[in-house]
Amino acid sequence: MKEIIKKAEILIDALPYIRNFYGKTFVIKYGGAAQTKKELKDSFAKDIVMLNFIGIRTVIVHGGGPKISATMEKMGKKPEFVHGQRVTDQETMDIVEMVLGGLVNKEIVSLITSHGGKAVGLSGKDGGMIKAKKKIIKKTTPETGVDEIIDLGLVGEVTSINPNIIDSLEKEGFIPVISPIGEGPNRETLNINADYVAAAVSSALKAEKLILLTDVPGLLDKKGNIISTLKKNQINKLIKNGTIKGGMLPKVQACLNALSDGVSKTHIVDGRIPHCLLLEIFTKEGIGTEILN
């Protein structure tokens, strides 16, 4: 009987959060280990379905870098990266679009559907949803001190989001699952960082939360402890002293972009923990790092 009562208490503890978030939109960037391990895939899908059944609208933006690289190698093409960005010629772009828009996207849709949700897969090109431009990266040459422009090929950054197709699907109770592919000014297909796409989508939807699933516990301080809560104005100091660095920089920048455009809260959460979304959203302690205005 004690165990049964404990389960009831857990549900009651979640009630204030359910009440506060009912009818709100959460944008979730799905990637890393949560996207590759079977038990974590099922855990993620169940969390998404539950959120929708209790009235929280969810929009998923997914990555798929390891799967793209593996497919390229099978096809005899070696992946190439500069500053963590995939160099994307036309042949690579064709593989990216095939893997993200086809294989990965439809697997996520099928997974959510198998657990009772109604998911629909989208590319950023569908309905003119994601407009983009080529991303320019500059690197200072040590010998001359002059900035050199690096051409990454068909790599883009978001210029605008048209949320109409997402709004239409949400009103009908569907869960949009978006691959981070956009259309350039000359109708060329561009490969875009999924964190930045998720931030741009959350801004366009005026979402309550942007949640980025990662393969780390959250933002860590110099002693390796999780920083549970951060305010936007503390970020620059942590970047300057090296606390925030490497692969965490684009994630933090994505959070800052979303906060600047009206998103209420952003979260960096460990996707390696089963039911990480429910633990972060419906408990006072949370399990990752929240960044807020």
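[next item in queue]
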Amino acid sequence: MAKTMNEELGVAIIGAGYMAQEHARAFAGMDGVRLSAVFSRSPARASALAAAYPGMLVCNSVKGLWEQSRADLVVVTVNELAMLEVAKACFAFPWTVLLEKPAGYDLENAGAILNAARSAGARAFVAFNRRAYSSTRGALDRLAKIDGPRFIRVLDQQDQAEALNVYKFPETVVRNYMYANSIHVIDYLRVFGRGEITRVTPVAAWTPESPGVVLSKVEFSSGDIGLYEGIWNGPGPWSVIVSTAQERLEMRPLEQLTVQLRGERRAMQQPLDPADTEYKPGLRYQALQAIRAARGDNANLATLEDSWCSMKLVADIFGLSS
């Protein structure tokens, strides 16, 4: 049963790396919220995380995490290759689940996670923290007041050699790097595009044997049009531009929104939510929404179904759909 605003809500964390630490910091200090327990395959890192939050338990399994904490919300921060196994273990218990993105290392894996959640009747969400940026929310607020079609352009940059040799990511993750990393910007096409996706048309196709420029046109039932521009193994900044007849909105870097009005040359920088500088951008707002979800209230979070749709868009853009 969902807890009321007057009842304390427990948050458990799986994983103890960088993102686990940032999520813990985002939840810490919230009224009526307690960081209750952590489980990690690295007990030393779990102990170090728990030491920062008095009363936080260290557990040795997902089952133990549930049994010892009875947490209302569990935040899963494991790597892509472990996500299916850990998510399925979490779905066995009646807490709300927040999975770090991506929820799957490819479309098939993402589908297996979604099917597992549906079979278990789990209440699961995915942590697309860029949706929670104050820049993204500010852009959506402005766009809600504007009629007419939108042109959405997302610019992506990826370097598989760097991911493999510098960051030491597993080969499977690097081979599927469009799911592991490009989804962060590709998801913006669905955030800003209205209606259903009716067509995805390759302009410059993905060539896995010699990655370079990838261009794809995305059409929506609303009349909105998107363009994905991926620069693979070359330089380029992540950015998002939404053009309408009245305003041009640009996020570059993604955390910052600038607005150019029709008839003006100058772009005006919009103020940031202070939480996006005090915490990893988007995480405090996202944590607040996750607490709402765990209490049974409506929350501005991506569902697991929503996440799968963005994974499907990635597959369509790169010609990887079965």
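[queue empty]
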